[in-house]
Specification:
The chain is of the alpha+beta class and 435 residues long. Helices cover 51% and strands 20% of the residues. Among the domains are: 54 residues; 182 residues, Helix Hairpins. A 6-stranded antiparallel beta barrel has the order 1-10-13-12-11-14. A 4-stranded antiparallel sheet has the order 2-9-7-4, with no helix packed on it.
Length: 435
């Protein structure tokens, strides 16, 4: 009985297995399995073709820093004190020499600036030497100059003295009068010289006449008394000639004295001019030193940008940074320091990618540049300096503008050889075959 049951179970199992096997044998595979080899071959060919278009560049990494030919100028407080007056707003366009802010001082800023402007007007007049014009530039009366007041009082005294000597034109008029006297004396001298020439000719004729009568007297043709008369005439001619020579000499002495007076006059004028210039420049130097401490002035044309929030009566510390002056045009570039590893592959015109440490590339992008100069000699650290031009300035690959700050550090990636992937694969195979 048991054997019969066992055989039936075995027969049923064989029947079931046969049905599964039959189903597997009769099953038609999916199209992907039927054409799998072809699809795999197409994929391989596609990847192979991609190696012709995909580029995998050689990169040399180095350090770099941003700089500029006309970098923004930073202005800071030269002394500690309150911000007494703020004369500009953030983003204003300013010009060279424009006043930006006043820092608290014992002197009134408006009076110091008034005196500074007056000196700027009077200085070109001094350079021309026309000191008489200073009378038309009256010195402003100022009483609140603080520490500059003593220097101002000293200059005021010198200015008044200069006006008395040079302002009214007295010395110039006197010099003109002396020059006129010299012309008169020169005319008298010329007349005396002409008269001397005439007297010399007259004396020569008289001398000849006397010589003739002297010969007649020796031959006793005429009496000696008559010869004395001719000798007397000759002596009179000699005396007249000597008087004319004395007149010429006196004219020369008078002319010499007039020239000495002119020299003394010019010396007095020059001494006063030098005294005035010395006093003026001393005052100017003290004013400029005061301005450097208590006035913030724009060094060039550009746009003013506040470094931090500023307001009047704010307490400032010495050396505190206040403004940046952004010039209208700035040429930016990067200075790269490359080590000797792989340096021979770096050439002019190669592309460089700069990633600024202060502006993460994941958020701001990177800056593209090109190498325009490579030093021939290494520096003290055996690295070479290269200049990187920035064709698009400080605009990143994400179209964001980076605000320039001098010496911003960056990592530089020099693209030395932008080869295709297929070239690299064959290059690796070639290296393996030649080993």
């Amino acid at each position: 009985m048991t054997k019969i049951v066992y055989e039936e179970v075995v027969n049923k199992t064989q029947q079931l297995l046969s049905e599964d096997v039959q189903e597997i044998i009769n099953y038609r595979p999916h199209w992907f399995i039927r054409r799998g080899n072809i699809i795999f071959l197409v994929i391989i060919l596609f990847l192979f073709l991609l190696t012709f278009s995909i580029k995998y560049p050689d990169v040399i990494r180095a350090s770099a820093r941003l700089t500029a030919l006309n970098a923004p100028k930073m202005l800071e407080a030269k002394t500690e004190g309150k911000l007494e007056k703020l004369l500009v707003k953030n983003g204003d366009n300013v010009s060279t020499g424009q006043l930006l802010a006043y820092i608290q001082s014992t002197g009134h800023h408006d009076e110091v600036i008034t005196l500074r402007n007056w000196i700027a007007k009077i200085e070109p007049v001094i350079d021309t030497g026309e000191f008489g014009i200073i009378s038309s530039h009256s010195l402003p009366l100022l009483t609140n100059l603080g520490g500059l007041q003593p220097a101002y009082q000293e200059f005021q005294n010198t200015f008044k003295e200069t006006l008395q000597i040079l302002g009214g034109g007295y010395y110039q008029k006197k010099r003109n009068a002396l020059q006129k006297d010299l012309q008169y004396l020169a005319s008298l001298k010329n007349s005396a010289t002409n008269q001397k020439q005439i007297l010399q000719q007259d004396q020569l004729l008289q001398q000849k006449e006397y010589d003739a009568y002297e010969k007649l007297a020796k031959d006793k043709v005429i009496a000696p008394l008559e010869l004395n008369q001719y000798k007397s005439k000759l002596l009179a001619k000699d005396q007249g000639l000597q008087q004319t020579e004395s007149q010429i000499t006196n004219s020369e002495i008078s002319s010499h004295n007039k020239r000495k007076e002119i020299l003394d006059l010019e010396k007095t004028v020059q001494d006063q001019q030098q005294k005035f210039e010395s006093s003026l420049f001393t005052l100017k130097s003290q004013i400029e030193e005061w301005v450097q401490h208590y006035v913030i002035i724009s060094p060039e044309n550009g746009r003013v940008e506040f470094i931090s929030f500023l307001q009047q009566n704010q307490l400032l510390s010495s050396g505190q940074q206040l403004f940046f002056i952004q010039p209208p045009k700035t040429d930016y570039y990067a200075e790269m320091k490359a080590g000797q590893a792989g340096f021979g592959k770096i050439k002019n015109g190669q592309k460089v990618i700069l990633r600024l440490f202060g502006y993460p590339s994941a958020e701001f992008g990177y800056i593209e540049g090109k190498i325009s100069y490579i030093s021939n000699l290494p520096n003290e650290r055996d690295s070479f300096i290269a200049k990187i031009d920035l064709p698009v300035g400080l605009t990143t690959s994400y179209k964001k503008s980076i605000y320039f700050r001098n010496n911003l550090s960056a990592s530089a990636e020099v693209i030395t050889d932008d080869r295709r992937l297929i070239d690299r694969l064959f290059g690796q195979l070639e290296q393996i075959l030649h080993r």
